[in-house]
Amino acid sequence: MKKNIPIFVTHYGCPNQCVFCNQKKISGVNHAVDLAECELLLNQAVKYNYPPEETEIAFFGGSFTGIPLEMQKKYLKLAEQFRQYFYGVRLSTRPDYITPSILDMLLEHGVTTIELGVQSTVDAVLEKNLRKMTHQDTVNAVELIRKYPFSLGLQMMVSMYGASDDDDIRTADEIIALKPDFVRIYPTVVLENTKLYELYQAGEYQIKSLEQTVCLTAEIYRKFLNAKIPVIRVGLMASEEINSQNIIGAYHEAFGELVQNEIYYQIIKEQLNNKKTIGKKLYIYCGEKEVSKVAGHKRKNILRLNKEFSFCDVKVCPDPLRKAYQLSLKIEQ
Ligand code: SF4
Questions:
Q1: If we measure between CA atoms, which residue out of 276, 290, 300, 301 comes closest to residue 326?
Q2: Where are the domains of the chain?
Q3: What are the C-alpha distances in Å from 8 to residues 108, 212, 239, 241?
Q4: Residue to mutate (ligand 1; options 63, 125, 127; most atoms within 8 A of CB)
Q5: How confident is the model at residue 11 (pLDDT cuts 50, 70, 90)?
Q6: C-beta of 26 in contact with ligand 1 (< 6 A)
Q7: β-strands 248-249, 189-190 pairing
Q8: CB of 72 closer than 6 A to ligand 1?
């Protein structure tokens, strides 16, 4: 399991104001860390003795390559001083802030992973959300990055302002076509002091229920699973700051877990298709670590299966030989 030492360069380097963005709240930090703070964070992280070969320093929260060049170099040079403790540097940025000279500089300064905030591949959605970029910017950035030895991650958002479910499914398909090394999926939430909050209050942005968002995200997640593209994060990271905010929409501390539960439910339902179930017992065999995900949050999946298929009993049975998402079902009298 890879680890990050997160350093939030909050909103720093970004002249934009996407409708959903209040980076200060999303990252749980309300100012960009300066170099002294950054050094302090790295010194603290060293004390945890993370295995260097599994740990990257991660500049998150803004558009790193939009920061003035000299400042980018200062951050990266500082990170280089800690290279014996961490194998590389990861950063997130916008697709339209990628150029060959930027990539040369990042490579020279030890950057190993670049994450692009794609959010949507549908131009009409990008425009509505004031992203000030197009899908072609993403395609161009990915092509450029692939000429270098960076690992590439793409981030997408679900249920953005003006996006239909079909738009989100299309975004997942178009991200898969770009063959990233990994993806992150974030549900859209409404934060105060954003344009989206105004749109929500004016009734122009309707939020989906948590359940609807979980279902859609599960469908999207399965696409990445089928394409063998690792999903390294689903949902915003819980932070003290986030927990204390009035967040409207599909925010749940365990959003990723709810999505995994839903995936298992969908797989089970598909395998039960057209089978006789009324009054019978169902045994679900799954990997040892997957039992609670198969059973669902507060055994919700078991309750749903009982109700929907009228089983008299449902049992989840651990099988050490099975991997994640490998299920088999047995139905008995
Ligand atoms: S580009 Fe990123 S940091 Fe800038 S406003 Fe949009 S989401 Fe926020």
A1: 290
A2: 3-252, 261-332
A3: 22, 31, 13, 13
A4: 63
A5: low
A6: no
A7: antiparallel
A8: no
How many A from CA of 169 to the centre of ligand 1? Answer: 22
Average pLDDT (317-333) is: 95
Question: What secondary structure does DSSP assign to 80-146, as a single string?
Answer: HTTTTT-SEEEEEE-GGG--HHHHHHHHHTTEEEEEEEEE-S-HHHHHHTT----HHHHHHHHHHHT
What ligand 1 atom has the least distance to the C-alpha of 131?
6
Candidates 3.40.50.2000, 2.40.160.20, 3.30.420.10, 3.20.20.70; CATH matching 3-252: 3.20.20.70
Please give the number of the atom of ligand 1 that sits closest to the Cα of 63: 3
Question: Taking a C-beta distance cutoff of 8 angstroms, is the pair 318, 293 a contact?
Answer: no
Q: Give distance in angstroms: CA of 3 to centre of ligand 1.
A: 24
In tens, the pLDDT along 311-321 reads 999 999 999 99
Ligand 1 proximity of 11 Cβ (cutoff 6 Å) = yes
* Beta carbons within 10 angstroms of residue 299's beta carbon: 14
> How much is the pLDDT for 103?
98
Lowest mean per-residue pLDDT among 7-11, 104-108, 136-140, 247-251: 7-11
Q: What spacing in Å lies between the alpha carbon of 327 and ligand 1's midpoint?
A: 40
The answer to whether the CB of 155 is under 6 A from ligand 1 is no
Q: Tell which residue, 72, 61, 67, 69, has the closest CA to residue 11.
A: 61
The CATH number assigned to the domain with range 261-332 reads 3.40.1260.20
| pLDDT tens digits, one per residue of 185-202 | 999 999 988 999 999 999
Nearest CA to ligand 1 atom 3: 62
Atom 8 of ligand 1 has which residue's CA nearest to it?
A: 21
